[in-house]
Amino acid sequence: MKPIEMAGPWVTEYEESLVLDALRNGWYGKDAYKYCEKFESEFSAYHDRKYALMTPNCTTALHLLLAGLGIEEGDEVIVPECTWVGSSACITYQRATTVFADIDPINWCITPQSLERAITGKTKAVIVVDLYGNMPQMEALQAVADKNGIALIEDAAEAVGSMYDGVRAGKFGIGSAFSFHRTKTITTGEGGMLLIDDESLFERCKLLRDHGRRPGSYYNEEITFKYMPFNIQAALGLGQFHRIDELVDRKRWMWQLYKERLADIPEVQLNPEPEGTLNGVWCTAAVFDSSLGISGLAAQSYLKENDMPSRPFFFPLSSLPAYGSQEAVASKLRPIAYDVSSRGICLPCALNTTEEQIHLYTNVVRKMLNHSKLN
Ligand SMILES: Cc1ncc(COP(=O)(O)O)c(C=O)c1O
Questions:
Q1: Other beta carbons less than 10 A from residue 331's beta carbon
Q2: pLDDT, tens digit, for every residue of 48-99?
Q3: Is the CB of 88 under 6 A from ligand 1?
Q4: Where are the domain boundaries for CATH 3.40.640.10 in the chain?
Q5: Diameter of the chain by CA atoms?
Q6: What is the whole-number distance in angstroms between the Cα of residue 231 and the centre of ligand 1?
Q7: Digit-coded pLDDT (tens) for 269-326
Q8: Ligand 1 test: best mutation among 6, 57, 83, 84, most atoms within 8 Å of CB?
């Protein structure tokens, strides 16, 4: 059996044919951005958004949006504790202040209550993250944001294929961002997409994306970023996007199989799918109930000894050196994030994972849990 991979894409001859066309023909005149524009327009239509901007990655998509909203030094932006640093780095890029909020013990996303608690007179925005494909309580979060006059931004980096109340992830708030990183459900190797409905915000972000110039102009209006997309990447993205149902189905199939194989151990909590939501399950994560007496770190080392890959559940950002290692204080202020993170791991989510591999993997997990119960 081939080794189980932690993450990776599923690319077919269809994508190869589009990439080859872009490579051969996508250089001159209107063809130079043909695939970028096609990917942008199809992706925005699918998500019921008016505008899309493809970017080099999701981190830059979020940065463009914060800059487009005029967020700057002295402003505060709220993010959940448990997420990848790609959600929050943009706040520092803009010299604004990062404020952390606690998460929900079941969906692992920011809660309306923790958002409300984190808001001050300086708050300009909240970046809500659809963690591992799980959907947060969007309606209540939007209500808190509206009540306090702050922008809600949806980091849908991990949520291709997820839905909340019949609305696709990526349709929430003033703008949303997706990631097409090598490890994501739809990939371009590196890549991202910003979705927006407001025309003037879109125009602003578009100007900011390309050295402060209008398309085709050589007259720079201001010094901005260079976050332009590339046709060959976009051709790969478009091909992957055309296969979105197949790719999301495969992710969901893996999640179902993990669920079935661990169904008799209710102390292992996997990604939830509450009524009214659909989970695209970019990655199946497992949180071990404290009664099992096993930490995420201990689980990871057991799995490693048995040649099984895993990744940590996202560390609370405030515990990282990048944010000043504030664990001692922050774990008391935002205890759920610290608790859930310490008991969780990410299971392999590569799109080439087979049924046999999931059987093997879950057998090792079961052995580990029996072992920990006995101790
Ligand atoms: C929740 C979340 N936000 C943002 C990012 C950043 O995405 P990218 O790597 O495309 O910049 C990621 C990527 O891993 C992510 O998982």
A1: 18
A2: 999 999 999 999 999 999 999 999 999 999 999 999 999 999 999 999 999 9
A3: no
A4: 13-101+108-242
A5: 71
A6: 21
A7: 999 999 999 999 999 999 999 999 999 999 999 999 999 999 999 999 999 999 999 9
A8: 84
232 neighbors 26 (Cβ within 8 angstroms): yes
CA of 59 to the centre of ligand 1 (A): 6
Residue with structure tokens 């487009």? 68
CATH architecture of 244-374: Alpha-Beta Complex (3.90)
Ligand 1 mean position, distance from CA 325 (Å): 21
Give every CB contact of residue 122 below 8 A, 6+ residues apart in sequence.
74, 75, 76, 97
**On the CB side of 38, how many CA atoms lie within 13 Å of its CA?**
22
> Where are the CATH 3.90.1150.10 domain residues in the chain?
244-374
- CATH number of the structural domain 13-101+108-242: 3.40.640.10
